[in-house]
Amino acid sequence: MFSSTALASLGSYYVYDSIGPVAELLARDLQFTDTQIGMLNAIYSLPNVILALVGGVLVDRFGARTVALCTATISLAGAVITALGAHFAVMATGRLIFGIGAETLNVVVCAALAQWFAGRNLALLFALNTCVARLGSYLADVSPSLAGGLYASGWQAPLWLAAGFAALSLASVAVYFVVDRREALRGTLLLASPSERVHWRHLFGFGRDYWLLLCTGVAFYSVIFPFRSTFAIKYLQEADGYTLAHASTLNSYVFLTAAFATPLFGLLADRVGRHATLLVVGSVLLPVSFLVLAAGRGEAGLATALLGVSFSFVPAVLWPAVSRYVSAAKLGTAYGLLTAAEDGGLTVANVVAGYINDTSGASAANPAGYAPMLEFFGALSFAAFLCALALKALERAPSAALGCERR
Predict the structure, then answer these.
(1) Taking the model in full, what pTM does it have?
(2) What is the secondary structure of 102-113 as a DSSP string?
(3) Are 350 and 230 in contact (CB under 8 A)?
(4) Taking the mean position of all CA atoms in its chain, how far away is CA 324?
(5) Contact 254, 228 (CB under 8 A)
(6) C-alpha closest to that of 97 among 163, 22, 4, 7
(7) Which of 66, 119, 213, 241 lies deepest, with the highest CB count within 10 Å?
(8) pLDDT value, residue 108
(9) Helical H runs in 63-147?
(10) How does the average pLDDT of the chain come out, rounded?
(11) What is the pLDDT of residue 131?
């Protein structure tokens, strides 16, 4: 069963990251602006500003396997429409539909793992599922090298390859559906908990430490995904002169590093317990990586390594830290709000970065035009570091915490 959910995540992550490798082709063949390219990933996140708060409720109400089958089908439909989209409106519609399905599918995978493996190395399985999902992003980045013939034919064939990965995700979910239904009839699965109401008053009851944690996460993810998944490959091609294959392979190392290092940093957080301190260490690498990148050609490898370590470090610490700063009664609302806020940040940052590139005339003919985009992401990176630093200032001894530490 784990292999089915892991493959479902791998396929979904591949499709999300399929825009970055074709960004330059979309600009060349379809004359898409960087604002439009940014919108193709921004529009994925847009509906999830709301859906992130209700996805878990749908799972509790209709069951994980049913919602998984529906969302995987929606994701495939969105990937197919995207591949058909010679016009921006069609492609954007496809990405919107894909986002509606894929983000809820991620929630379903978490619920399915909990129902199948509660009390049996669940944390390890979550980490392993994340590793496989990150490999999907890695495969998307190295696809210009692995499937160079598809990219040589233009923008559309690579997006059909992404649709194939969406089909793999649906097929994996179908296997999970059949096995889960069989085991449910046998009574071997953990029963889902009753549907949880969202208590909106909880939004006004969080402490400053939670809000600083949320701001750290929003600023951090508003850099990582819009840059790495949308503009990094195009930037490396046009500003540093790399080929598509070289640029995409270099960019892939961010997620390849995260795939294997995230569980190690999660283990470190469990052992040490100083979440705010670890967030400071992890987040400081992000602005440093953009300073290195702005230093000029030849430094992209070091900048990528710093991004990879930061992307391994911060998520491994940030998500478990929520339970340290929020009481158990508010935990569901806290996670939903954090996810929704991050999706909002991804939406805005993708569009703003694309707009900055367009107004600065960033292109292969004008590599200097990318400098304002790097400054924008650098400023967001520094904001994430400052929020983590402020959280560190508020960090209390474990005995003075809210009493909801679960490690």
Answers:
(1) 0.75
(2) HHHHHHHHHHHH
(3) yes
(4) 23
(5) yes
(6) 163
(7) 213
(8) 77
(9) 64-84, 88-117, 122-146
(10) 82
(11) 79
Pick from 58, 57, 23: nearest CA to 140: 23
User: Which are the contacts of 143, defined by CB distance < 8 A and separation ≥ 6?
Assistant: 18, 21, 150, 151, 158, 161, 248
Question: Can you state the angle between helices 331-360 and 371-394, rounded to 10 degrees?
Answer: 150
The CA distance from 112 to 106, in Å, is 10
Question: What's the confidence (pLDDT) of residue 406?
Answer: 28
pLDDT for res 354 = 93
Show Cβ contacts of residue 14 under 8 Å, excluding neighbours closer than 6 positions: 136, 137, 139, 140, 162, 165
Written as six digits, the tokens of 244 are 């598509």
How many whole angstroms separate alpha carbon 155 and alpha carbon 300? Answer: 25
3-state class (DSSP) for residue 365? coil
Q: Which amino acid, one-letter code, is at 140?
A: A
Tell me the two tokens of residue 215: 């701001």
Structure-token match 């040490």, residue found: 272
pLDDT at 400 over 50: no
**Listed residue (339, 282, 346) closest to 316, CA to CA:** 282
Cβ atoms of residues 219 and 345 within 8 Å: yes
Where helices occur in 208-367 by DSSP H, the ranges are 208-225, 232-240, 244-272, 275-294, 300-325, 331-360
DSSP tag of 190: P
CA distances from 38 to 13, 30, 184, 229, 299 (A): 17, 15, 43, 10, 24
299 φ/ψ angles, rounded to the nearest 5 degrees: -105, 5
The conformation of residue 326, written as its DSSP 8-state character, comes to S
pLDDT for position 387: 93
CA distance 80 to 98: 9
Cβ atoms of 405 and 324 closer than 8 Å = yes
| CB of 26 closer than 8 Å to CB of 246 | no
Domains contained in the chain, CATH given: 1-196 (1.20.1250.20), 200-407 (1.20.1250.20)
